Inverse folding.
């Protein structure tokens, strides 16, 4: 059974959502003939998309169609349920959301994020704007079948649903995922079944998705496809690439910016991480070798179920940062020699992991010194630069050496905002899955 079920009110919207999902390498299947639907034939599909052709019909009939389909496709293996709605709020939004909730059960709530930033459809202060124009002043207001008379998203839902509705705004999103998770659970305890979110950018959708995941609620995504795609990327690994095309991130940066970025990454997706005890790397040759082997073995023995593994120097946490000068005096070498010893050790760990498990097809490295050390250990001639992911973060592939052609993203440890590392990893995954 697929891990994602999308019920759309028309075929065009169904296919549009399917295209968004395929960009993350999900196999999406749109049902065109319900009488010939055989769920056994869809075992290799990541997402089933079922159009009900219910946008312009009576609300009660729309309810029945969605309810019956949701009952048919309900399954414990599904991680994301989605009610695809029109990006300009036309149709039976409320009754169809009610039907989905009723079919799944009382523990589910609807997370409505009805924006489509790439199409200039955003929600701010609870109001939908299309190309900066309030929705009720656009062509949606004169649609012959489904005219929309208000720009208030909550008003549209409340006129159609039988359930309590609440809203969360841009100010809530700015407070982060933990705040959203707390508000979601607070509303759920109050009996709210539909929560409407402001959203003006893809980054907003990522934060909302993170908050939903952190809240641990059971949910139905109600949106024009963009939020469904965002939360699916966090919850679902495509069948075809599961345990393949893994990404290894080697991070040796020791600053607060890098720590914040790592925290955001870990909140956003499934991963397996091993911290490297950097003190062990500099105490003696034997202790260094033992620590390198420990980290390698932990990653290799536990990476099967993860498409992202991370190796991080524990100096990223302030309490573990070494006084390099004291070690330099102790061993009568330069501070740079001590730093290089740590960098070379992380490079050796990276080399051995990629050698022992060929499913790692992408590499992220943070810290210029780490990238140089890795390049030397791999005996690469250089990096063929192909794109800029975010400012000061580059995507390319190694030229020459044992891992020629390896996809790599490199970034300075202090470069970017809190979401930059997360964006780099997602970018690299998307390149591997294309």
């Amino acid at each position: 059974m697929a891990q994602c079920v999308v019920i759309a009110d028309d075929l065009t919207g169904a296919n549009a959502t399917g295209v968004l999902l395929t960009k993350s390498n999900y196999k999406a299947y749109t049902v065109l003939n319900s009488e010939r639907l055989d769920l056994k034939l869809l075992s290799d599909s990541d997402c089933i998309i079922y159009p009900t052709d219910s946008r312009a019909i009576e609300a009660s009939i729309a309810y029945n169609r969605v309810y019956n389909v949701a009952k048919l496709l309900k399954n414990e293996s599904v991680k994301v349920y989605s009610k695809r709605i029109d990006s300009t709020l036309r149709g039976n939004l409320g009754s169809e959301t009610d039907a989905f909730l009723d079919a799944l059960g009382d523990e589910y709530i609807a997370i409505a994020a009805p924006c489509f930033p790439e199409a200039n459809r955003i929600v701010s202060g609870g109001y939908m704007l299309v190309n900066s124009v309030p929705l009720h002043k656009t062509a949606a207001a004169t649609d012959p079948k489904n005219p929309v008379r208000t720009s208030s998203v909550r008003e549209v839902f409340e006129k159609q649903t039988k359930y309590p509705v609440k809203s969360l705004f841009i100010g809530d999103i700015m407070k982060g995922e933990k705040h959203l998770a707390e508000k979601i659970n607070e509303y759920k305890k109050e009996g709210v079944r539909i929560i409407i979110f402001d959203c003006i950018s893809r980054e907003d959708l990522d934060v909302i998705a993170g908050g939903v995941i952190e809240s641990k609620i059971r949910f139905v995504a109600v949106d024009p496809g963009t939020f469904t795609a965002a939360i699916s990327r966090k919850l679902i690994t495509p069948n075809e690439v599961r345990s393949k095309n893994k990404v290894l991130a080697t991070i040796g940066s020791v600053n607060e910016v890098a720590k914040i970025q790592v925290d955001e990454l870990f909140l956003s997706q499934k991963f397996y991480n091993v911290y490297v005890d950097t003190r062990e790397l500099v105490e003696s040759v034997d202790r260094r070798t033992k620590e390198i082997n420990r980290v390698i073995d932990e990653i290799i023995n536990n990476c099967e179920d993860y498409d992202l593994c991370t190796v991080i120097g524990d100096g990223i946490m302030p309490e573990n940062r070494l006084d390099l000068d004291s070690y330099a005096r102790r061993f009568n070498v330069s501070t740079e020699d001590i730093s290089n010893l740590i960098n070379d050790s992380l490079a050796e760990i990276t080399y051995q992991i990629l050698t022992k498990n060929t499913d790692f097809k992408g590499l992220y490295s943070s810290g210029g010194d780490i990238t140089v050390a890795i390049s030397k250990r791999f005996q690469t001639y250089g990096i063929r630069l192909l794109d800029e992911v975010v400012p000061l973060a580059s995507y390319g592939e190694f030229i020459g050496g044992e891992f020629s052609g390896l996809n790599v993203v490199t970034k300075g440890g202090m470069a970017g905002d809190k979401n930059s590392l997360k964006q780099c990893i997602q970018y690299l995954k998307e390149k591997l899955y294309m």
